[in-house]
Specification:
With 270 residues, the chain is of the alpha/beta class. It has one domain: Divalent-metal-dependent TIM barrel enzymes (TIM Barrel), CATH 3.20.20. The protein contains nine helices and ten strands. The strands form two sheets. Strands 1-2-5-6-7-8-9-10 form an eight-stranded parallel beta barrel, surrounded by five helices. Strand 7 (154-158), helix 6 and strand 8 form a beta-alpha-beta unit. Helix 5 packs across helix 6 (167-177), helix 6 runs parallel beside helix 7 (196-203) and helix 7 packs parallel to helix 8. The termini are close together. The model is unreliable at 46-53 (pLDDT under 50).
């Protein structure tokens, strides 16, 4: 088991109290963990009072240089742009190109993997209905898997809403693409309660990264939203030995949330 820390866990601090390029050093100094996930949403500058995508070579070079200097591994870059399942061919072609640009950026900074979604996270958050198709999703991920092979990076699909809320849809996509450069990111918290356990069991054989999602903790150091230990042990008991990423999503102190999540993972992995 390899622990890593997602920049989402410190979302109120990264880019404000310290630059994204220093996130690995901060995770290493504060938590003793030298592997990180750098979220695409944090590849921004705030000089103009709004989030401006920063993919300039100098910016990417700085991240690559500092992570190498600090002996930090970038396990994954979660990318939350694009709708790869939409029926609008022109829109999908544009979004595919945008995602490929982010995949190239991830490779540039030395990330081992890049996670993309079946649909638009922004549209879902704003309750914007866009017609989608599972067959279109398969075509999109086939294209992206081929590009992942070309640039030599791991492409990941997460159970992250929309079509990917159904584990059978996820399995259908990953088996249709059937590429060694394409696998899954399994989030412990993202399936609905009634399918969570069985859904996670279905994902295990294809999982390359686990998102250990937590919320605010109770007096026993556990979370109340779902049975974290039972979900984590699904992967342990089936021999998973890949990275487990700390993804604290609570409303409380984020530094302490990361610390407690690390303790919770270690508690249930023994």
């Amino acid at each position: 088991m390899e622990l890593c820390v997602s920049s989402w866990s410190l979302r109120d601090h990264v880019g404000r109290e310290f630059p994204l390029a220093d996130f690995g050093r901060v995770a290493k100094d504060r938590f003793g963990i030298s592997a990180v996930e750098l979220c695409q949403m944090h590849f921004v500058t705030y000089d103009f009072g709004f989030a401006f995508p920063a993919q300039e070579t100098a910016f990417l070079d700085e991240i690559k240089t500092t992570t190498e200097r600090d002996a930090v591994t970038i396990v994954n870059i979660p990318v939350d742009v694009g709708n790869l399942s939409q029926l609008d061919e022109q829109g999908r072609a544009f979004d595919l190109q945008v995602v490929k640009t982010w995949m190239a950026a991830a490779k540039h900074v030395g990330s081992q993997a890049v996670r993309v979604n079946t649909e638009s996270v922004i549209a879902r958050e704003r309750s914007i209905k866009v017609p989608v198709s599972l067959s279109v999703a398969k075509e999109s991920f086939e294209q992206l898997a081929q590009f992942a092979e070309e640039v030599d990076i791991q492409l990941l699909l997460e159970n992250h809403g929309g079509l990917s809320s159904d584990p059978d849809n996820i399995i259908e996509v990953v088996e249709a693409v059937a590429s060694e450069h394409f696998g899954l990111c399994a989030d412990l918290g993202n399936f609905a309660d009634d399918i969570r356990i069985e859904g996670l069991k279905k994902l295990v054989p294809y999982t390359k990264l686990v998102h250990a999602k937590t919320y605010d903790f109770d007096e026993n150091g556990e979370i109340g939203e779902f049975d974290f230990g039972k979900c984590l042990r699904i992967f342990k008991n089936r021999g998973y030995d890949g990275p487990i990423s700390v993804e604290f999503e609570g409303a409380g102190d984020q530094w302490n949330g990361v610390k407690q999540t690390i303790e919770l993972i270690k508690k249930h992995w023994r």
